[in-house]
Amino acid sequence: MSKGQGTALVTGASAGIGAVYADRLARRGYDLVLVARDEAKLKALMARLVAETGVKVEILRADLANADDIRKVETRLYSDDITMLVNNAGIAVAGPTIAMNSERLDAMIQLNVVVATRLARAVAPGLAQRRKGDIVNIASVVAIRGDQPAISVGYGASKAYLLAFSEGLDSELAPYGVRVQAVLPGVTRTELWEKGGLDINALPQDIVMETGDMVDAALVGLDQGERVTIPALPDVSDWVAFKTARAALLPNVSHRLPAERYRRTSADGVRQPGRGEHNG
Length: 280
Ligand SMILES: NC(=O)c1ccc[n+]([C@@H]2O[C@H](COP(=O)([O-])OP(=O)(O)OC[C@H]3O[C@@H](n4cnc5c(N)ncnc54)[C@H](OP(=O)(O)O)[C@@H]3O)[C@@H](O)[C@H]2O)c1
Description:
By secondary structure, the chain is an alpha/beta fold. The chain has a single domain (7-252), classed as 3-Layer(aba) Sandwich (Rossmann fold), CATH 3.40.50.720. Helices cover 42% and strands 13% of the residues. NADP nicotinamide-adenine-dinucleotide phosphate binds at residues 12-18, 36-38, 62-65, 88-92, 111, 138, 140, 185, 187-188, 190-192, 195.
């Protein structure tokens, strides 16, 4: 029985963060569409959530590496009942880029970047037209690690893309009353680590968050209207300072001439004019 929140479609709902989102959203009164490959796990989750919450739960088995399956999920996102997309399915391929298998790197970029983008694009027009809804993109704190990559450079870059995509899409959709939230979890206790050949228990345990705590915090962030939520960050003004520093660069990153330090100096030490200063 619908409790009036509409329907949330959660990708990667068979395990980890996605399964907890499904649980919490059902308790908030959302009907659900659960997307992943492992149908048995999705069925078990569906049975529990229907029994415990009474919401409607639908299973959409899909391998998001498969073009036909991606189209099936896009088609479901076109429906009028959809009020939320949780773009959560993702994989982490670990290791140095020079040693990485190209196909696994490609699969990671496809899922973390291309599929997340396509699903957001599929759901956005309907949400905008109905002037209501949320897109939640599960990025990662690796998105802001810059030249200090964790897990792998490609994984960090895929999540940096998702953060940039979220922030930009939020600006586009804000006039329609649609919110786009990027969630940047730190290390979270899920199977992702083991699947990526990494031992979460080898990490200092004071940087590891339980999945329930992470998702609950992200939903509180959404309730508070945050567009970027870093569940572990104690002081939100640190994020604001980061954004302010970035914004301060913007008036100065496009000019007619290169910056003074890049203007050529001839062998005799005489500064050469920039290209735009030539007469002929
Ligand atoms: N755990 C962390 O420390 C952490 C930190 C920051 C961000 N994140 C991000 O959080 C998200 C969820 O990760 P998690 O930690 O919950 O990982 P997880 O426990 O491994 O769960 C990943 C989910 O994605 C689904 N999935 C993977 N490949 C898929 C495919 N080809 N088609 C459809 N579904 C697929 C899996 O389902 P099936 O196998 O059934 O298809 C599973 O439900 C990811 O985007 C991850 O990058 C995780």
